Amino acid sequence: MDSNQYRSLTVPVAPGTSDRRRLAIGRRTDGTALSLPVFVVKGARPGPVLWVQGCLHGDEYAGSRAIHHFVAGLDPDQLSGTVIAVPVVNLMAWEQKSRVSPIDHLDLNRVFPGSSEGTWTRLLAHRLLEAISASADFVLDLHGYRSNYFALYFHQQDEAGAMAEQLALDSGAPAVVGVDEAWLEQSLFAVLTRRGIPAILIEAPGEGRNDPEVIDYYLKCMQNITIKRGMIQGDATRRSPPDQLKNLISIPAPASGFVDLKVKRGDKVNHGQIIARILAACGDPVAEVRSPGGVALVLNLDTHGVIHQGEPLVMIGEFCD
What we know:
The protein is α/β, with parallel strands linked by helices. It folds into two domains: 4-228, Zn peptidases (Aminopeptidase), CATH 3.40.630.10; 245-319, CATH 2.40.50.100. It has seven helices and 15 strands. Strands 1, 2, 3, 4, 5, 6, 7, 8, 10, 13 and 15 form an eleven-stranded mixed β-sheet that branches. A four-stranded antiparallel β-sheet has the order 12-11-9-14, with no helix packed on it. Strand 1 and strand 2 form a beta hairpin.
């Protein structure tokens, strides 16, 4: 499938109408075709093209449900521009209730730009990136793992980087993090922004649930951004200025065992503060984890109770000076 076919996502839809489309990706292991469900809402008035998607990781469901509500609430006659919405990107992972593909077990958000001749996840990344690049002016990628509420943008000194930062600020997320860490360089939002398409990643608590308050949060973020871009009418909501953070630091578990957490998501921590202790099977402490940065906010915690050495335990973002 060549990239010209991806452009047909928007062209056939007449102004002031909405439709459902399919984005062809490839074939399943049994040889049957695999395509992703896509909603296209083309406004009666000209404007930018927003691409919004959920379930890049297959078990992050609340963003997908928020997309359903968001699309259902759009009136094409009152919309300026176009919304292209893909509620479930990693379809085979979603079918298995898994974070990653059951075929090659790769993390889709660590392999962009992918490859046209790679394994399944790399192929999906390649074709998704082609479709977005051919269609979108800006991108919202909804995620929900073991996280608090925050928005990520890729920090770079150009027009795309500045707009990505503004999208994150406009979302209404209580924390906004500008990142350029190497371990995120193959994430979709980073690759797109480097290619000149502003993109942000919106995080919220998930862990395989469809909590109504999380769905509502995503919905408000999407509405806030489209209001700020002049695509829909309304008043953007924000309770207070966001915490602005940098240096997203992922801290792996130094040992395997039970996790005795000393902080919660959303807590502020200082340099050297104990975040968690790791306990052996008998309950004796075998390691402790301390905050390595300056004053920081806890953004992500493994709350499953047991962890293996090397697995991500906690993620913090340092406060900007």
